[in-house]
C-alpha cells in the first residue's frame, strides 16, 4: 500500500494498533485501535498535539469511551441516537444480550485472547483513516505520513474515534492549530 511513505512514528502507530487488537482478541484492526496506539506514543508530533490538548491526562477516559462503544457492538452515540429516533433502545438491547451472553458479548472480544494468531485485517474505517492521512499529508505538501496525519484523519472522519476525541476537545481544528499555528488551541 503506502506504508513506505509512513514515518517511523506512523508505522509504530499502525503496528501498535495491531497489538491492541491482538490483546483485545479482536478479529480486525479498527479506528479505535489506531487511537489507542496514538495514545501510547511519546516523543512524536501526534503525541505532542495530544499532550498540548490535555489528552495525555485523559487517556483512561478515552479508553473507557472506546470500551463503551465496543459494548454497543461498535455503534457510536450518534448511531444509537438515530436508532432511538426509530424506537430502538440500544441500551436495552445491550442489556438483554449481556444478561444472556455476558458483559461485552456484542463487542466481539474473545474470552480466550489466544484464539487467533494469524494476520488481522483492517476494517474499512481503519483503511479509510490511513488513506485520509495520506490525503491530509499530500494536502499539506508533506513528503511523509506522520502520526500527526493519522490523528488528523481520526478527527475528521465520522465514527467512534472522532466522537471520543471530540468529547475530549480534540478536533481537526484544535489539532491543526497546535501543529501548524493559527492561534492557541484549548481542550474543552
Automatic annotation (TrEMBL):
Gene3D superfamilies: Clp, N-terminal domain
Pfam family, one: Clp_N
Boundaries of every Clp R domain copy: 3-188
SUPFAM superfamilies documented for this protein: Double Clp-N motif (SSF81923)
UniProt keyword annotations, A-Z: Repeat
Coiled coil region boundaries: none
InterPro entries assigned: Clp_N_dom_sf, Clp_R_N
Name of the protein in question: Peptidase
Amino acid at each position: 500500500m503506502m506504508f513506505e511513505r509512513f514515518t517511523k512514528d506512523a508505522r509504530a502507530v499502525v503496528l501498535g494498533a495491531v497489538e491492541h487488537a491482538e490483546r483485545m482478541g479482536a478479529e480486525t484492526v479498527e479506528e479505535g485501535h489506531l487511537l489507542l496506539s496514538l495514545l501510547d506514543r511519546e516523543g512524536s508530533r501526534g503525541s505532542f498535539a495530544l499532550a498540548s490538548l490535555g489528552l495525555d491526562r485523559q487517556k483512561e477516559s478515552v479508553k473507557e469511551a472506546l470500551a463503551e462503544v465496543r459494548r454497543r457492538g461498535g455503534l457510536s452515540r450518534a448511531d444509537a441516537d438515530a436508532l432511538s429516533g426509530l424506537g430502538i433502545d440500544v441500551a436495552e438491547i445491550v442489556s438483554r444480550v449481556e444478561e444472556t451472553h455476558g458483559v461485552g458479548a456484542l463487542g466481539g472480544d474473545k474470552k480466550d485472547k489466544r484464539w487467533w494468531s494469524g494476520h488481522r485485517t483492517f476494517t474499512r474505517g481503519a483503511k479509510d483513516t490511513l488513506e485520509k492521512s495520506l490525503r491530509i499529508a499530500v494536502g499539506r505538501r508533506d513528503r511523509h505520513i506522520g502520526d500527526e496525519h493519522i490523528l488528523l484523519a481520526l478527527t475528521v472522519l465520522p465514527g467512534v474515534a472522532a466522537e471520543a476525541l471530540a468529547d475530549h476537545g480534540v478536533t481537526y481544528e484544535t489539532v491543526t492549530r497546535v501543529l501548524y499555528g493559527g492561534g492557541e488551541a484549548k481542550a474543552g
